[in-house]
């Protein structure tokens, strides 16, 4: 652990979560990545005002973001790996400079 300006910094191990679903891999990938707005709890997990939708743009370099009622988009992360239907990785930290974002796979 390092101490800097009364703030402790330390390395946190990756968080790993596994969910088994009873459907073809391609269906699970599509539901997770291409239809995130259908299952993401946007009413309680958002950072903008009056969110209406959230999106994962299906390509490397694509954005992960929310969109509010006025069309304003708020960035959540950037897609780093897009290999349907087997692999998706993206950064996941809001309001953090790009060089300090963590990755989610």
What does this 3D model show about the protein?
It contains 2 helices and 7 strands. The chain has 105 residues and is mainly β. The protein has a single domain (19-104), classed as START domain (Alpha-D-Glucose-1,6-Bisphosphate, Chain A, domain 4). It is globular. It starts with a strand and ends with a strand. The mean pLDDT is 85.
Protein traits:
5-stranded antiparallel beta sheet, 105 residues, Alpha-D-Glucose-1,6-Bisphosphate, Chain A, domain 4, two-stranded antiparallel sheet, mainly beta
Using the 3D structure, state the CATH architecture. 2-Layer Sandwich
Q: SSE order, as H and E?
A: EEHHEEEEE
Percent of residues in beta strands: 25-35%
Note the gap between the termini: 26 Å
Instruction: Kindly state the percentage of residues in helix.
Output: 10-25%
Query: Given the helix and strand composition, which structural class is it?
Result: mainly beta
Low-confidence stretches: none
Mean pLDDT: 85
What is the quaternary state of this protein? single chain
Strand order of the largest sheet: 3-4-5-6-7
Task: Assign an overall shape.
Answer: globular
- Total domain modules: 1
CATH level 1 name: Alpha Beta
Beta-strand segment tally: 7
CATH superfamily: START domain
Largest sheet: 5 strands, antiparallel
């Amino acid at each position: 652990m390092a101490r800097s300006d009364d703030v402790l910094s330390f390395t946190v191990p990756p968080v790993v979560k596994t969910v088994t679903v009873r459907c073809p891999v391609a269906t699970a990938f599509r539901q997770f990545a291409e239809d995130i707005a259908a299952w993401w709890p946007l009413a309680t997990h958002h950072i903008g005002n009056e969110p209406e939708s959230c999106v994962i743009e299906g390509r490397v370099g694509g954005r992960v973001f929310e969109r509010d009622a006025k069309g304003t988009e708020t960035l959540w992360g950037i897609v780093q790996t897009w290999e349907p239907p087997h692999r998706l990785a993206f950064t996941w930290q809001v309001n953090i400079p790009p060089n300090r974002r963590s990755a989610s796979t």
